[in-house]
């Protein structure tokens, strides 16, 4: 499976956080199980507790939104620099916004283990996972480990290129 990276999908590479409530379990225990699975770098993590799954999915979605916003605003800054050749204002705003999003993403997600995971929503890919037959929850959140090197390089390169182009145009206007 391509989402599993270079490791095969064995039971040691799959973690299931079960929704089991008894005197020993609480939401904190579910969070600790998730942290352990993230630390083990499991290829697939299935989260049955709905509250933990929803929070994790929202956190990953917010990071994805920051990443996409950094890329789109950086790209828009570069394009606007060519379209409005005599005006630096639209380009500067988009460039600053791109740098802010990149900085926030880097500061908040750089050392977070969740950055390596994406929520898998494609039913065709979910069916291929052998562990899903043992799932007791109706709507588990399935996290798949993916290499994020490309996306980090992409948004950093675009943001820095947009800022450099903006600085270049400013320098050219001043001189």
From TrEMBL:
- UniProt xrefs under InterPro entries: TMEM11
* GO cellular-component term (any): mitochondrial inner membrane
Alphabetically sorted, this entry's keywords are: Membrane, Mitochondrion, Mitochondrion inner membrane, Transmembrane, Transmembrane helix
Q: Where in the cell is it found?
A: Mitochondrion inner membrane
Record membrane topology: Multi-pass membrane protein
GO BP annotations of the record are: inner mitochondrial membrane organization
What function does this protein fulfil?
Plays a role in mitochondrial morphogenesis.
Query: Sorted alphabetically, which PANTHER family does this protein's record hold?
Result: PROTEIN PM1, TRANSMEMBRANE PROTEIN 11, MITOCHONDRIAL
Give the similarity note: Belongs to the TMEM11 family.
Q: What is this protein called?
A: Uncharacterized protein
Q: Which organism is it from?
A: Brassicogethes aeneus (Rape pollen beetle)
């Amino acid at each position: 499976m391509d989402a599993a990276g270079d490791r095969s999908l064995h039971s040691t590479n799959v973690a299931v956080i079960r929704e089991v409530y008894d005197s020993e379990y609480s939401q904190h225990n579910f969070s600790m199980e998730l942290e352990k699975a993230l630390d083990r770098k499991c290829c697939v993590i299935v989260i049955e507790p709905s509250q933990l799954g929803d929070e994790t999915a929202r956190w990953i979605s917010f990071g994805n939104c920051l990443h996409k916003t950094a890329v789109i605003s950086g790209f828009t800054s570069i394009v606007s620099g060519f379209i409005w050749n005599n005006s630096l204002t639209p380009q500067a705003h988009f460039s600053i916004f791109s740098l802010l999003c990149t900085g926030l993403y880097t500061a908040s997600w750089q050392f977070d283990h969740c950055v390596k995971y994406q929520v898998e929503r494609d039913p065709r890919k979910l069916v291929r996972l052998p562990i899903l037959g043992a799932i007791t929850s109706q709507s588990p959140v399935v996290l798949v480990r993916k290499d994020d090197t490309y996306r980090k390089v992409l948004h950093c390169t675009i943001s820095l290129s947009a800022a450099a182009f903006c600085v270049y145009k400013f320098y050219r206007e001043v001189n």
